[in-house]
Amino acid sequence: MFRIFALVLMIAVWAINSAEVPEEVIFEETFDGKLKDGWRWIREDSEDWRIKNGALEICVRPGDSQSVKNALVRPAPDRSQGKYSIEVTITNLQPPKNQFEQAGITWYCGGKPVFKLVKELVDGKLMIIPGRKPMTNDTVQLRLIVDKDGYIAQYRPDGAGEYFTAATGKLPAPDNDEVSIQCYHGSFDEDRWIRFDDFRIKKLPE
User: Fold this and answer.
1) Tens digit of each residue's pLDDT (9 = 90 or more) over 171-181
2) Which pTM does this prediction carry?
3) Integer CA distances (angstroms), 61 to 58, 69, 71, 141, 185, in order
4) Which domains does the chain have, with CATH numbers?
5) I want to staple 80 with a disulfide (CB 3.0 to 4.6 A). Which of 62, 76, 148, 206 is the partner?
């Protein structure tokens, strides 16, 4: 009898330890009329961004990673203490036209942009960068998973179904990390808007 009880107890403990630890949402931006505290703008132009229908819309203008306008930035979680994901859904309200026109997530380390996960027009083809994965859907959900050493860049078309991994790699050591949603390599002659919604930061199980 004791052996049976001990076996049942061992199975119960194993089941508890093996149960999947749920992801924990530690920040969510609903774009409900205004931005939550903690955000800051890089080179803000208030005429080229708006909150509309529960999302942030930014007009994509000329620039690059060093001169981007209307980059919305906030402190990133301390990835030296665990694994986190940053998620955002982006929608091109008008098709991109310029070489390298892009929108997505940029990671800052020590005040400098060190990594991006974006939907980008390259040589006439839309793709997820890094990884150069074809992406013709207007809408795509991006997920950047980070820890103290590196990243996993993922995406899913139309924000539904399973995530696909575009690339994995290393990041510099944590140094006042920040995360941004932004777009650039656009045009001054035409207004093309990018819609950002469903922004979340999650703590992931180890």
Assistant:
1) 999 999 999 99
2) 0.89
3) 9, 7, 11, 22, 6
4) 22-204 (2.60.120.200)
5) 148
